[in-house]
Each structure stands twice: as C-alpha cells, then as structure tokens.
Amino acid sequence: xxxxxxxxxxxxxxxxxxxxxxxxxxxxxxxxxxxxxxxxxxxxxxxxxxxxxxxxxxxxxxxxxxxxxxxxxxxxxxxxxxxxxxxxxxxxxxxxxxxxxxxxxxxxxxxxxxxxxxxxxxxxxxxxxxxxxxxxxxxxxxxxxxxxxxxxxxxxxxxxxxxxxxxxxxxxxxxxxxxxxxxxxxxxxxxxxxxxxxxxxxxxxxxxxxxxxxxxxxxxxxxxxxxxxxxxxxxxxxxxxxxxxxxxxxxxxxxxxxxxxxxxxxxxxxxxxxxxxxxxxxxxxxxxxxxxxxxxxxxxxxxxxxxxxxxxxxxxxxxxxxxxxxxxxxxxxxxxxxxxxxxxxxxxxxxxxxxxxxxxxxxxxxxxxxxxxxxxxxxxxxxxxxxxxxxxxxxxxxxxxxxxxxxxxxxxxxxxxxxxxxxxxxxxxxxxxxxxxxxxxxxxxxxxxxxxxxxxxxxxxxxxxxxxxxxxxxxxxxxxxxxxxxxxxxxxxxxxxxxxxxxxxxxxxxxxxxxxxxxxxxxxxxxxxxxxxxxxxxxxxxxxxxxxxxxxxxxxxxxxxxxxxxxxxxxxxxxxxxxxx
Length: 581
Ligand SMILES: Cc1cc2nc3c(=O)[nH]c(=O)nc-3n(C[C@H](O)[C@H](O)[C@H](O)COP(=O)(O)OP(=O)(O)OC[C@H]3O[C@@H](n4cnc5c(N)ncnc54)[C@H](O)[C@@H]3O)c2cc1C
Prior knowledge:
The structure is a single chain. The protein has three domains: about 30-90 and about 100-155 and about 310-395, FAD/NAD(P)-binding domain, CATH 3.50.50; about 165-305 and about 400-455, 3-Layer(bba) Sandwich (FAD/NAD(P)-binding domain); about 470-575, Sandwich (Jelly Rolls), CATH 2.60.120. It starts with a helix and ends in a 9-residue tail after the last helix. It is an alpha/beta fold. A hairpin with a 4-residue loop joins strand 15 (about 290) and strand 16. The protein is globular, with a radius of gyration of 27 Å. Helices cover about 30% and strands about 25% of the residues. Strands 7-6-5-2-1-8-21 form a seven-stranded mixed sheet. Strands 10-17-11-12-13 form a five-stranded parallel sheet. The site of flavin-adenine dinucleotide has 33 residues, from helix 2, strand 2, helix 3, strand 5 and helix 8. Flavin-adenine dinucleotide (FAD) binds near residues 57, 153, 173 and 345.
C-alpha cells in the first residue's frame, strides 16, 4: 500500500522538479505548444496541404505549417477520431491514475484555424492528386484534392502470426484499448472474488503482458499498481494469488535505454511481484491459456500484446516506395520519386544519414521524434513553395524516460542516468510539459494529485461486452462448452476438429460425433434453447467462428433459406427431438 503522506510530498516535489527541469526540457521543445488563437482571416491561397492523420506527426505538422505559412496555405487535417491521443499516457488510463478523457484533446480546440475533418482515409490517387475518404455515416465516398500531401497515419497492430493471439489478446494502441483493459482487469477481480472454482480463479488472477518495450513495461507497471491498490476491496483475493507475467523475446527490456537502466527496471518490477521472463515469447493463445515458446502453459484470462506493429492498410494499397508497408522517404522527409508527397512518424522509414546502414541510422518510431520530424517537414514545405533548398531531418535524442508505476521510473537525460522516485517525477513533469493544451495539462496534473491522495477507483463504467461475430482459437483438449451451460452462440468450424458428446434422446445412452472444418453446431438456438444438451471439446487445435444468439436469430429471421436449412438439418440429425431447456 502506498501511504498518503509521502505521495502528498511527491506532489510538491513534482512541482519543484517541474520548475527545475522545465528550463532543461524547454531547450528542446517547441515553444508553441499552447493553443493558438483563431485567426479571423479568410484562406485566400490555392495551395492546399492535406494532412492524413491527427496523431503526433500530423497534428504538429498542421500546427507548424500554420505558424510558418499563415494564410498562404489552406490546411486540412483528416483523422478517424475528432481528438488527439497522447499515447504515452495510455498505460496510466489502463491503470486508472488518469481518466480516459484526459489522455486526449479535441483537435478542433488545439488547432482552431485549420480545417479538421473527422473521416476515414480510404485511398490515395497520385495521378489525380486526390484522397478518397468516407466521412460520418455517409456511405458515398468524398474525394479531396491536394497540392501537398502529408501522410502521417501511424501504425496498426497485426497479431495474426501467432495462433490465437489476434483473437484473444488485448492491445494497447488506442484510447478504447486502454479503457477496455481497465474494465477487463476490474471484471477479472470481480469474478475472482466470487467464483468457487480454483481453476477459474487462477485464470482470472493471472495477467500476462507480451513485449518489454516502453509500452509493455509501462503497461505492466500500471496494471500491477491498479491490482495492488484495488485488492483491499476484494476480501476473497489474497495478494499471493495474483500472478503478473511479462514475456520478452529479447534478452533485455527497454531496448532504447542503457542496459543499467533496463536492469534497474527489471529489479524494481520483480520486487513488486512482476514475473519477468526474458528470451521467452508466445507461441499460441486461447481464451483461457497462453503457451510460451519454452512450452509453459499459463492459465490466464488476460493477454495484453504490445508487440506486432504493422503498417496502415491504406498505405499498403498505395503504389509508392515502401519497405514492409512503411513509406520510404528521403532525408528531407519527401516520399521517394514524388514532388509533393511527404511522410513522417510511425508510418515512414526516415533515414538520419545519407547512407544509412544499421537500425540506428533511421528515426525510431517515437513521439519524441515524430514531433521534431513535423517541424522539419513544415519548414521544407515552406522552402519548396518559396523555391529554397530543403533541409534534411536531423535530431539526436536527448534522452528517454519510462514510468514503472507505483512512483518509480527510469530516465536518461543528456547522458545522465536517473532511477527511482526522481526519475518518475521527471517523467511526469516532462509529460505535463509535452501535453498539448493548457486545460489538458491542468486536468492531468489534477488527476495525478487526486490519485496520490485517494484510493484507486474500481468503478467499472465501461463494461466488457461480448464481441459480436468473432473467432475463437482452441487447443486440442480444450472444452468449448459443457452440458447444462448457457447457449449463447452458434459455431462454425474454420479449421480443426470438435467432438460433441451428448445423450441419445431415445436410448438414454451417451453418443458422440466429430465435426470438421465447414461443420457447425449450436443451431438449437433457433428452437429457443437456452442451455446446452451436449459437451463440445476440441479434438485438435481448432479455430471457430462464433455468432451471438442475437446475430444468429436475426439471420434466421431475415433469410428464410437460412432458417429452412437449419430446420431441416436439426430434423435430419434428431436435434429437434431433444428437450428444450
Ligand atoms: C502505449 C504507448 C506508449 C508510448 N510511450 C511513448 C513514450 O513514452 N515516448 C515516446 O516518444 N513515444 C511513445 N510511444 C510511441 C508514440 O506514441 C508514437 O511513436 C507516436 O504516436 C507516433 O505518432 P504518429 O503521428 O506517427 O502516429 P499516431 O500518433 O498513431 O497517429 C496516427 C493517427 O492517424 C489516424 N489514422 C490512422 N489511420 C487512419 C485512416 N485510415 N483514416 C483517418 N485517420 C487515420 C489515427 O486515428 C491517429 O490519430 C508510445 C506508444 C504507445 C502505444
């Protein structure tokens, strides 16, 4: 338990360190992070800059361009959401130390005199210089012309390479992911507190995080903090029953930091009860298990994947120079073989030298770099418009910071290594400074102060919903459901084999049948069944597609041939004779 008094003093220490380090940090930060006043002028010029993506790179590009070129350009920014997400704070949202709305800021507020369009980018056409988007509920495509195009769409997650990971892992990229994770953890604690089944309790209280980079380490630290500080509300859960595991395939965590700081992070997390497994990856997952590359089978209901960054699907379709789905740009941030298309941030491969060779010769996918890339990009668009030479992107990281949760952190600033409470305070001060918009800074600071003085809330406002049509992965021997359990879905087998064992309605004897890919089961939902009359077990590793009861019944109602097929199938296999429960 963390006492109130030390935390209270932390607040003043935070203010103090904020004061002392702000001078150091501002040396390296843009001086115009607070919001700009709306300009009253009208756009007069034709040069249209279209920015795709409103994350760190897109948002800061828009802001720098407006500052540099004022009304000489017409800037339009397109983003899926109407807000900017401060991704480094997502683990804190998951851990509950700040509320979800404080990790985001409305784009319209942050950049008021730029056109913001909440829409989804679908494709880019170089020939016609247009971008096709879909906006709001409108199904008709909208085409937008550009003179300069900035692609800043960030990255996506692709977990499809590991069996079951895509279907069963939670991710940590968006605000929704962070909210879902918090709700999921609280749901597991609620369930563990009341279940009588030891196996179910063990699964509910085992939390696994895959990936030991910044987001994995910060996420594991924050969720451990949430669990530890919530336990006092769950009298039937002992601290010794909690298992929090972090898997990292490499031989160290926090690759971007010096080895000594990574070692400190490992020691601190271990002391707080996090089990760190290095040189261990994930080989398979189901809804109830994670199998590691060393063969350990972990009974868990929580798998958080912070690995598997993949390129944006829009970029993959775009006929442009790419490397593994990321856009190849030159040192000036201009897309290779184009005159007016630029790309920065996580979606671009940005060389830092003329002849890049190793990994260190490319800009890393971090917010710290994205913000600086945005500044160079805006300067280069201006230079091109004024027929001046372009400037190559150059930036040397001034350091790195990571929070380990529970008031501890690691930091390297201008080569100085810091650990513990001081590093954590600097981490917080830095992010307060970095956050765009004064109101967001104040709200986050206020959240932190309140969190330090009050217990962690276990209110679950965002409840976990059963996803609609979804894939589930089972390992050989896994039980899909058993006789008497709730009939909540209709299953079709995508691959593998399922054995259904029931009791013959006429003879009363047990009988079983094996179903293979293309077969289905659970159709008695049509007859109004609410309980299973058979047990289904995976005979081999199996993937199924599950429709919820509501979805299945809607299909049957809307498609008469669909309903007829299942009625005939149930008649032929005698399923209609079984008692309805
Ligand atoms: C949990 C976590 C912690 C992190 N911690 C740190 C840290 O401590 N320090 C650090 O420097 N970096 C950190 N990072 C990395 C950092 O957040 C990213 O490098 C940075 O966000 C990249 O900026 P970006 O603009 O390229 O992409 P993003 O910020 O991801 O922005 C991309 C934007 O494009 C939008 N978009 C995507 N596709 C479409 C489409 N088809 N149509 C419309 N809009 C679309 C998205 O909605 C999003 O708003 C962290 C990342 C995560 C996930």
